[in-house]
Amino acid sequence: MPVSFQTNVKHVIVLMLENRSFDHMCGWFGRGDGVNSTIFNRRDPANPASPQVFASRDAEWLGDLTVDPSHAVLDVNVQLFGRTIEPSPPVATNVGFVLDYANQPGTAPADAGNVMKAFDPLKLPVLSTLAREFVLCDRWFAAVPGQTWPNRFFVHAATSGGFIDNNFRDYTFRTIYDNLEDEGYPWAIYFHDFPQSLTLSSLRKPEYLGHFKNSHQFFVDLRAGNLPAYSFIEPRYFDFLRWKANDQHPPHDVRLGEHLIADVYESLRRSSLWDSSLLFVLHDEHGGIFDHVPPPATVNPDGLVSVTPPFDFTRLGVRVPAVIVSPYVDRGVVDSTVYDHTSILATARELFNLPNALTKRDQQANTISRNLKAHPRTGAPMTVARPPEATADLFHTTPAAARMTASHVIQDLAHGQASAAPLSEFQASLVAAANALQVEQPPRAGVLTLARLVDNQHEGAVHVRETAVRVLRKQ
Question: What distances in angstroms separate CA 272 from CA 209, 375, 447, one per listed residue?
Fold first, then answer.
């Protein structure tokens, strides 16, 4: 439903976090289609006598999901259908989340039910405040029932080229940034340690590399009133000394992502650009964590399908948290329109009058324009309460503490601050991408780089950060 007036939204900002479901984060907000204590999964959905594991509101910021739940398409099939091969027709009942988590290597039997845990709203004061003050979308689905890379490709390009995994390839499809560029709209991708979007070869054109900026530059640009028309923010994916991952990807501390959301919102709210901005806060996919709403059917974007594993891209992924923040939306709205990540692209096309959709998916996606008003409202909070977390509080109240200086790095290494946590599957995929992107090194240096032992988050963080610096020629 297009806007019926000339909108004053001139700046679209997308903050996309990692791997949490709607029920897990927003299900107990008391608004929209949330979860309740009568909803359950059986440990074995094929056995009517199998023990029930009920949804609860006792999720912890970290520690519940030390084994990362799987979100590969065959595992998501188990979560949705109770079996690896989707039935025909693919009618989801969302009965297999506990079963699938129990089957993951390293999951203790007593921990299998942890995927049913959700957060009490008091533990997520930032997200719950924004959901209360702006628009909470309770039918926003991941673009595909699969992993991070294809879902992030859909938010950039409305397709993943027929691929459903996290493997590095020559991804050449057209993106929203090409459409913006053609129409003269400035854009930027702000990243913390490594931009996953850099795995798109179509974004590694020399003339595009200057559009990738370090995360701190977002706040500099915002204060200066120089934010581009379209901004995409990528969180920190790795723990590196005092700079902890703030992506909320299990098993990372959810509080750090709360601080990132608060930083972005409060800085935007205080800026001169607030009255011309639209902010999306959402997660890329559900991360294997329980949600009770079956995903709907959708359209294949471009005729491409995955053979191994089989998937035809005609159904959406599991619901994810999504909040629309702007002075042009009413307070306390629950929007139950079906959205997916390509709704952002469709909305941008509408707001900026871009001429063409990228694929059939964003061509038919619902836009959020039904929520936009002609005039900005007043009274949105200037600040939001944050969850207690000593390290994060230091970072966000004392900006100098978060500056990545040589002295800070040396000091942290001397005090044994390096993370020895193993790489997640997603982090390993970024390390593999960094290996594939080795550029402009003498042969000996290149061999030594590729021979580096990267088996923990600290080493992974160093490796991907160095690669980003080389590829983007940034210091």
Answer: 27, 16, 49
pLDDT exceeds cutoff 90 at 241: no
CB 164 within 8 A of CB 285: no
User: For residue range 301-339, what is the model confidence (pLDDT) as tens digits?
Assistant: 999 999 999 999 999 999 999 999 999 999 999 999 999
Give the alpha-carbon dihedral of 56, 59, 63, 69, to 10 degrees: 70
Give the CATH architecture of domain 11-22+120-371: 3-Layer(aba) Sandwich (3.40)
**Is the peptide bond between 309 and the residue preceding it cis, with omega within 30 degrees of 0?**
yes
Q: How far is CA 396 from CA 118, 191, 345, 404, in A?
A: 26, 17, 31, 14
**The tokens of 337 are what?**
């329109």
Provide the pLDDT for residue 2. 55
Mean of pLDDT values over 202-227: 95
Mean pLDDT of the chain: 91
Helix or strand run (H / E) with residue 26: helix 22-26
> What are the residue boundaries of the structural domains of the chain, listed by start?
11-22+120-371, 24-116, 403-472
Give CA–CA dist 52/75, Å, rounded. Answer: 20
DSSP letter at 421 equals P
Q: Alpha carbon of 337 to those of 135, 154, 224, 454: distances in Å?
A: 12, 19, 36, 43
